[in-house]
Amino acid sequence: MYALLSVSNKEGIVEFAKGLCFMGYEILSTGGTLKILLENSIEAKNISQYTQSPELFDGRVKTLHPKIHGGILHRRNNPNDSAQLKNYDIVSIDIVCVNLYPFKQTTQKTDDFEEIIENIDIGGPSMIRAAAKNFQDVLVITDINDYALVIQTLKNHQNTPEFRRKMMIKAFEHTATYDCLIANYMNKRFSQGMGEKVFITGSKVYQTRYGENPHQKGALYEFDNFYHNTFKIHKGEISFNNLTDMNAAIKIATNFGDAPAVCIIKHANPCGFAIKENLLASYQEALKCDPISAYGGVVAVNGIIDEPLAKQINQTFIEVLIGAGFTPQALSVFESKKRIKIFSCGENTLKFPQDKIDFKHIEGGFVYQQADIIANNEISNAKLMSQTPATKEQFQDLEIAYKIAAFTKSNCVAYVKNATLVAIGMGMTSRVDAAKAAISKAKDMGISLKGSSLASEAFFPFRDSVDMAAEIGVSAIIQPGGSIRDDEVIQSANEHNIALYFTGIRHFLH
Fold first, then answer.
1. Does 38 share its domain with 179?
2. Residue 255 DSSP label
3. Which of 133, 170, 288, 311 is catalytic?
4. 428: helix, coil or strand?
5. Do 403 and 288 belong to one domain?
6. For residue 17, which of 34, 130, 9, 73 has the smallest C-alpha distance?
7. pLDDT (tens digit per residue) in 393-437
8. How far apart are CA 35 and CA 54, in angstroms?
């Protein structure tokens, strides 16, 4: 019995090889894998010695040989294949363990194209695909985390067709992902990221109980290892909707650096936000915007949740709570609460991947784009269009309002006062309707908008939105500008002594 071991990631390979040898397998190996096996007193045969063909072209060709692929691909129950195997002195290779050159890691550490090209594996994917194709007879291993399972399965004589089929699927997923990484990188480098083909790949992290609704299946997949490495479940079972709501909450809460920001989300829309002197004060103020909608909502805390904050949060039913971390005392506060779900994602502050790409499913395909971001200088470089400038405090409120509006469903307007969201209108078919909805909700909550700062994620098409803002006492407005009636909008701001800034950049979110 022969096993072929040729791995880029050497972690665990010595123990795995020892387990195979103990069960009577003879080892074929190459290059660095062979070297580490021999250094650990494991008998292994050099593939070049077996094939009687030297490695060529600095190792570019070493496993591309009939003795290798014939040993993997021949059909064990086919008499003609067996005759050819014997005629050409080929041995059966029943186990193939391969992981590939670190292409992605290479692109992350260097821009040297020659080095990147040399880290495109050729022989590895060929052996994996051959073994996966012939899974009825060959066991293929591509994941170092499967080594112990494979050894145990072989010891227990459970190397069944079903087990090999499971490993075959993982193998094809492995090579498909590898090819996608290469193609996407080349398009990013040479086609501005918008090639004729684009590939979206992810690794499964969690099976959710269901999708958006109970009749739909759902799961979380990740691009890299962010959720595996950073995201922790402390209490409860995560749902599909929890994940989308948390995404919205964390996206806003992490856009203010290390500031003690708290964001409350309900159905993917913000209903509370504040930055105060500490997290407890931030939460208390964030809750005031819309405590009714906050009931059963998602709270993202940009910091460590301690016992006093936990006790405050515990006074309201919050379905999902996520922070950078929790003190043991804070977690104990929620022990008796059955319905709350608790997660952490960070260290001292929340962490978020901030992907460079964005895409949405449409029937028959998907639309794909660069991810929307607010540049560091976008707000600070906003152009004063009115005669009245904003005070320092007003400008800070404008920044908060603008970032909230940018990450909220269009059409959206956000009102911020003293670093606290006091009203918001979102997802409306007109900007005036969004403003009316926000003002009406604030009135219902007994919140005065006098002295607040207003942000819109797109331009005001008419002056009516500014006139309406003046009626409730808005003191400063920030928006992209770009309407054919900008002059009328600016005139309205001057008539009402409102500070008006244009950023020149729109942030639709549909």
1. yes
2. T
3. 133
4. coil
5. no
6. 34
7. 999 999 999 999 999 999 999 999 999 999 999 999 999 999 999
8. 16
449-482 CB burial, b ≥16 within 10 A, e <16: bebbbbbbbbbbbebebbebbbebebbbbbbbbe
267 is catalytic: yes
> Shortest CA distance to 140 belongs to which of 182, 177, 93?
93
User: What distance in Å separates the CA atoms of residue 226 and residue 352, rounded to the nearest whole number?
Assistant: 8
Among 267, 337, 351, 436, the active-site one is 267
CA 390 – CA 387 distance, rounded (Å):
10
Low-confidence ranges of the chain (pLDDT < 50): none
Structure tokens given for 344 = 């952490």
Output the domain CATH number for residue 290.
3.40.140.20
**Contact call for residues 298 and 253 (beta carbons, < 8 A):** no
How far is residue 115 from each of residues 104, 126, 179, measured CA to CA in Å?
12, 21, 17
Same domain assignment for residues 149 and 288: no
Q: How many residues does the chain have?
A: 510
d(Cα 455, Cα 251) in Å, to the nearest integer?
A: 18
How many folded domains does the chain comprise? 3
Q: Indicate whether 351 belongs to any domain.
A: no
Residues 160 and 55 in one domain: yes
CB 291, CB 448: distance < 8 Å: no
CA–CA gap between residue 159 and residue 173 (Å, rounded): 20
Boundary-marking domain end, from 171, 190, 209: 190
- Pick left, alpha or beta for residue 497 (phi over 0 → left; psi -120 to 50 → alpha; otherwise beta): left
Q: Is 133 a catalytic residue?
A: yes
Same domain, 330 and 403: no
Domain that holds residue 321: 226-345
Same domain, 146 and 295: no
pLDDT in tens, 4-46: 999 999 999 999 999 999 999 999 999 899 999 999 999 999 9
| 330 and 443, same domain (yes or no) | no
pLDDT at position 82, please?
Answer: 92
**210 is a domain residue:** no
C-alpha 123/C-alpha 341 separation (Å) is: 47
- Are residues 493 and 442 both part of a single domain? yes
pLDDT computed for residue 61 by the predictor: 86
**In 3D, which of 382, 412, 377 has the Cα closest to residue 480?**
382
